[in-house]
Amino acid sequence: MSGDAPLSAAEKTLSVLEALADHSRIADIADASGLPKPTVHRILQTLVRRGFARADGRGGYLGGPRILSLAGRFLQRLDVAEHVRPTLRDLQERTGWTVHFALLSGDEAVYVAKVEGARPYHLASRVGMSLRLHCTSIGKAILASLPDDEVRALARRTGLPARTRRTITDERALLAELAAVRGRGYAEDHEENEAGVRAVGAAVVDHTGEVVGGLSAASLVDLAEAPADLPQLVVRAAAQVSRALGAD
Known about the structure:
The protein has two domains: 9-63, Arc Repressor Mutant, subunit A; 65-244, Beta-Lactamase, CATH 3.30.450. The strands form two sheets. It has a six-stranded antiparallel beta sheet with strand order 5-4-3-8-7-6, with helices on both faces. The chain has a two-stranded antiparallel ribbon with strand order 1-2. The protein contains nine helices and eight strands. The model has no long low-confidence stretch (mean pLDDT 89). Helix content is 43%, strand content 19%. By secondary structure, the protein is of the alpha+beta class. The longest helix has 15 residues, at 230-244.
Protein backbone atom coordinates (compact mmCIF):
# COMPACT_ATOMS: atom_id res chain seq x y z
CA MET A 1 0.00 0.00 0.00
CA SER A 2 1.12 3.53 -0.60
CA GLY A 3 -0.07 6.99 0.42
CA ASP A 4 0.98 10.13 2.18
CA ALA A 5 -0.87 9.60 5.45
CA PRO A 6 0.09 6.67 7.69
CA LEU A 7 -2.48 3.91 7.97
CA SER A 8 -4.58 3.74 11.11
CA ALA A 9 -4.70 0.57 13.20
CA ALA A 10 -8.17 -0.15 11.81
CA GLU A 11 -6.97 0.23 8.22
CA LYS A 12 -4.04 -2.11 8.86
CA THR A 13 -6.34 -4.72 10.38
CA LEU A 14 -8.77 -4.48 7.46
CA SER A 15 -5.88 -4.78 5.00
CA VAL A 16 -4.75 -8.00 6.68
CA LEU A 17 -8.30 -9.37 6.70
CA GLU A 18 -8.70 -8.64 3.00
CA ALA A 19 -5.36 -10.29 2.22
CA LEU A 20 -6.29 -13.29 4.37
CA ALA A 21 -9.16 -14.04 1.99
CA ASP A 22 -6.65 -14.94 -0.73
CA HIS A 23 -3.45 -15.85 1.11
CA SER A 24 -2.43 -17.95 4.09
CA ARG A 25 1.34 -17.38 4.45
CA ILE A 26 2.48 -14.38 6.47
CA ALA A 27 4.90 -13.34 3.71
CA ASP A 28 2.12 -13.34 1.11
CA ILE A 29 -0.27 -11.48 3.41
CA ALA A 30 2.46 -8.91 4.07
CA ASP A 31 3.04 -8.46 0.33
CA ALA A 32 -0.67 -8.14 -0.43
CA SER A 33 -1.34 -5.70 2.42
CA GLY A 34 1.88 -3.72 2.06
CA LEU A 35 2.60 -4.11 5.76
CA PRO A 36 5.76 -5.36 7.52
CA LYS A 37 5.74 -9.02 8.52
CA PRO A 38 5.96 -8.25 12.29
CA THR A 39 2.90 -6.02 11.97
CA VAL A 40 1.02 -8.69 10.03
CA HIS A 41 1.96 -11.33 12.60
CA ARG A 42 0.78 -9.14 15.47
CA ILE A 43 -2.54 -8.39 13.77
CA LEU A 44 -3.05 -12.06 12.94
CA GLN A 45 -2.50 -13.05 16.56
CA THR A 46 -5.20 -10.58 17.59
CA LEU A 47 -7.54 -11.93 14.92
CA VAL A 48 -6.90 -15.49 16.13
CA ARG A 49 -7.73 -14.53 19.72
CA ARG A 50 -10.98 -12.94 18.55
CA GLY A 51 -11.92 -15.86 16.29
CA PHE A 52 -11.52 -13.99 12.99
CA ALA A 53 -8.52 -16.11 11.96
CA ARG A 54 -7.03 -19.46 12.88
CA ALA A 55 -3.69 -21.20 12.38
CA ASP A 56 -3.80 -23.91 9.72
CA GLY A 57 -1.19 -26.10 11.45
CA ARG A 58 1.34 -25.57 8.65
CA GLY A 59 2.62 -22.13 9.58
CA GLY A 60 -0.15 -20.27 7.78
CA TYR A 61 -3.51 -18.78 8.64
CA LEU A 62 -7.13 -19.16 7.50
CA GLY A 63 -10.30 -17.24 8.13
CA GLY A 64 -11.92 -17.97 11.48
CA PRO A 65 -15.49 -18.91 12.36
CA ARG A 66 -16.41 -15.43 13.59
CA ILE A 67 -16.13 -14.05 10.06
CA LEU A 68 -19.05 -16.16 8.86
CA SER A 69 -20.83 -15.80 12.17
CA LEU A 70 -20.92 -12.04 11.65
CA ALA A 71 -21.77 -12.52 7.99
CA GLY A 72 -24.67 -14.72 9.06
CA ARG A 73 -26.02 -11.98 11.28
CA PHE A 74 -25.81 -9.46 8.46
CA LEU A 75 -27.48 -11.95 6.13
CA GLN A 76 -30.32 -12.21 8.62
CA ARG A 77 -30.73 -8.43 8.74
CA LEU A 78 -30.06 -7.55 5.11
CA ASP A 79 -31.43 -10.76 3.59
CA VAL A 80 -28.53 -11.01 1.15
CA ALA A 81 -29.35 -14.74 0.86
CA GLU A 82 -32.72 -13.91 -0.69
CA HIS A 83 -31.75 -15.54 -3.98
CA VAL A 84 -31.68 -19.00 -2.32
CA ARG A 85 -34.69 -18.49 -0.08
CA PRO A 86 -37.28 -19.57 -2.67
CA THR A 87 -35.58 -22.98 -2.81
CA LEU A 88 -35.41 -23.23 0.99
CA ARG A 89 -39.03 -22.19 1.31
CA ASP A 90 -40.12 -24.70 -1.33
CA LEU A 91 -38.33 -27.51 0.52
CA GLN A 92 -39.98 -26.46 3.78
CA GLU A 93 -43.42 -26.44 2.15
CA ARG A 94 -42.89 -29.87 0.59
CA THR A 95 -41.65 -31.47 3.82
CA GLY A 96 -43.02 -29.39 6.69
CA TRP A 97 -39.54 -29.64 8.24
CA THR A 98 -37.20 -26.84 9.29
CA VAL A 99 -34.73 -26.04 6.51
CA HIS A 100 -31.17 -24.80 7.09
CA PHE A 101 -28.49 -23.48 4.76
CA ALA A 102 -24.94 -23.30 6.13
CA LEU A 103 -21.58 -22.28 4.69
CA LEU A 104 -18.21 -23.83 5.49
CA SER A 105 -15.95 -21.71 7.70
CA GLY A 106 -12.63 -23.34 8.51
CA ASP A 107 -13.28 -26.52 10.48
CA GLU A 108 -16.92 -25.60 11.15
CA ALA A 109 -19.98 -24.48 9.24
CA VAL A 110 -22.20 -21.49 10.01
CA TYR A 111 -25.95 -21.21 9.47
CA VAL A 112 -26.69 -18.35 7.06
CA ALA A 113 -30.39 -19.03 6.42
CA LYS A 114 -33.21 -20.85 8.19
CA VAL A 115 -36.87 -21.45 7.33
CA GLU A 116 -38.94 -22.63 10.28
CA GLY A 117 -40.96 -25.82 9.96
CA ALA A 118 -44.73 -26.00 9.80
CA ARG A 119 -45.13 -27.43 13.31
CA PRO A 120 -45.67 -25.12 16.32
CA TYR A 121 -42.15 -25.55 17.69
CA HIS A 122 -38.76 -24.04 16.96
CA LEU A 123 -35.42 -25.80 16.85
CA ALA A 124 -32.56 -24.23 18.79
CA SER A 125 -30.60 -23.45 15.62
CA ARG A 126 -30.27 -19.83 14.50
CA VAL A 127 -28.62 -17.82 11.76
CA GLY A 128 -25.02 -17.10 12.74
CA MET A 129 -24.68 -20.24 14.88
CA SER A 130 -21.68 -22.44 14.11
CA LEU A 131 -22.03 -26.22 13.85
CA ARG A 132 -19.63 -29.13 14.13
CA LEU A 133 -19.02 -31.15 11.01
CA HIS A 134 -18.79 -34.67 12.44
CA CYS A 135 -22.21 -34.78 14.09
CA THR A 136 -24.56 -32.87 11.78
CA SER A 137 -26.10 -33.85 8.46
CA ILE A 138 -24.74 -30.72 6.78
CA GLY A 139 -21.32 -31.29 8.30
CA LYS A 140 -21.15 -34.94 7.27
CA ALA A 141 -22.25 -34.05 3.74
CA ILE A 142 -19.37 -31.56 3.62
CA LEU A 143 -16.86 -34.02 5.08
CA ALA A 144 -17.93 -36.68 2.56
CA SER A 145 -16.60 -34.41 -0.19
CA LEU A 146 -13.09 -34.56 1.29
CA PRO A 147 -10.46 -37.29 0.94
CA ASP A 148 -10.14 -39.50 4.01
CA ASP A 149 -6.69 -38.06 4.80
CA GLU A 150 -8.17 -34.57 5.10
CA VAL A 151 -10.98 -35.87 7.28
CA ARG A 152 -8.43 -37.55 9.57
CA ALA A 153 -6.41 -34.35 9.81
CA LEU A 154 -9.51 -32.32 10.65
CA ALA A 155 -10.63 -34.87 13.25
CA ARG A 156 -7.26 -34.67 14.95
CA ARG A 157 -7.32 -30.87 14.92
CA THR A 158 -10.80 -30.51 16.34
CA GLY A 159 -11.41 -33.82 18.07
CA LEU A 160 -14.72 -35.64 17.75
CA PRO A 161 -16.51 -34.51 20.92
CA ALA A 162 -19.75 -36.18 21.89
CA ARG A 163 -22.76 -33.90 21.59
CA THR A 164 -25.18 -36.70 22.51
CA ARG A 165 -24.87 -40.39 23.28
CA ARG A 166 -25.39 -41.06 19.55
CA THR A 167 -22.53 -38.87 18.32
CA ILE A 168 -19.85 -40.65 16.30
CA THR A 169 -16.64 -40.10 18.26
CA ASP A 170 -14.43 -42.76 16.67
CA GLU A 171 -12.38 -41.78 13.62
CA ARG A 172 -12.78 -45.11 11.83
CA ALA A 173 -16.52 -45.14 12.46
CA LEU A 174 -16.76 -41.61 11.06
CA LEU A 175 -14.87 -42.60 7.90
CA ALA A 176 -17.21 -45.58 7.45
CA GLU A 177 -20.21 -43.27 7.84
CA LEU A 178 -18.79 -40.84 5.26
CA ALA A 179 -18.28 -43.70 2.81
CA ALA A 180 -21.99 -44.49 3.19
CA VAL A 181 -22.84 -40.80 2.65
CA ARG A 182 -20.86 -40.79 -0.59
CA GLY A 183 -22.64 -43.92 -1.71
CA ARG A 184 -26.17 -42.63 -1.22
CA GLY A 185 -25.54 -38.94 -1.98
CA TYR A 186 -26.87 -37.45 1.26
CA ALA A 187 -26.11 -37.46 5.00
CA GLU A 188 -28.26 -38.19 8.03
CA ASP A 189 -28.18 -36.98 11.61
CA HIS A 190 -29.96 -39.35 13.99
CA GLU A 191 -29.94 -37.31 17.21
CA GLU A 192 -26.14 -37.00 16.94
CA ASN A 193 -25.96 -33.24 17.40
CA GLU A 194 -29.03 -32.61 19.53
CA ALA A 195 -31.11 -35.20 21.37
CA GLY A 196 -34.57 -35.53 19.88
CA VAL A 197 -33.67 -33.93 16.53
CA ARG A 198 -33.04 -35.72 13.25
CA ALA A 199 -32.00 -34.28 9.89
CA VAL A 200 -31.12 -35.09 6.30
CA GLY A 201 -28.50 -32.98 4.56
CA ALA A 202 -26.71 -32.60 1.23
CA ALA A 203 -23.66 -30.64 0.13
CA VAL A 204 -23.74 -27.37 -1.81
CA VAL A 205 -21.05 -26.38 -4.34
CA ASP A 206 -20.12 -23.05 -5.90
CA HIS A 207 -19.17 -22.02 -9.44
CA THR A 208 -15.77 -23.74 -9.11
CA GLY A 209 -17.32 -27.07 -8.14
CA GLU A 210 -15.92 -26.83 -4.62
CA VAL A 211 -18.14 -27.77 -1.68
CA VAL A 212 -18.84 -24.54 0.21
CA GLY A 213 -21.61 -25.63 2.55
CA GLY A 214 -24.74 -27.65 2.80
CA LEU A 215 -28.49 -27.69 3.16
CA SER A 216 -30.63 -29.75 5.53
CA ALA A 217 -34.18 -30.49 6.57
CA ALA A 218 -34.61 -31.17 10.29
CA SER A 219 -37.39 -32.11 12.67
CA LEU A 220 -38.07 -33.33 16.16
CA VAL A 221 -38.04 -37.12 16.18
CA ASP A 222 -41.38 -37.50 17.97
CA LEU A 223 -43.45 -34.94 16.10
CA ALA A 224 -43.10 -35.47 12.37
CA GLU A 225 -43.14 -38.38 9.97
CA ALA A 226 -40.43 -38.18 7.36
CA PRO A 227 -41.79 -37.86 3.81
CA ALA A 228 -40.89 -40.94 1.81
CA ASP A 229 -38.95 -38.87 -0.71
CA LEU A 230 -37.26 -36.59 1.84
CA PRO A 231 -33.66 -37.45 0.83
CA GLN A 232 -34.42 -36.83 -2.85
CA LEU A 233 -36.10 -33.51 -2.04
CA VAL A 234 -33.08 -32.39 0.02
CA VAL A 235 -30.59 -33.43 -2.67
CA ARG A 236 -32.63 -31.65 -5.34
CA ALA A 237 -32.85 -28.48 -3.24
CA ALA A 238 -29.09 -28.56 -2.60
CA ALA A 239 -28.51 -28.80 -6.35
CA GLN A 240 -30.80 -25.81 -6.91
CA VAL A 241 -28.95 -23.75 -4.28
CA SER A 242 -25.66 -24.77 -5.90
CA ARG A 243 -26.91 -23.47 -9.23
CA ALA A 244 -27.95 -20.22 -7.53
CA LEU A 245 -24.32 -19.92 -6.37
CA GLY A 246 -23.08 -20.35 -9.93
CA ALA A 247 -22.53 -24.11 -10.15
CA ASP A 248 -23.20 -25.91 -13.43
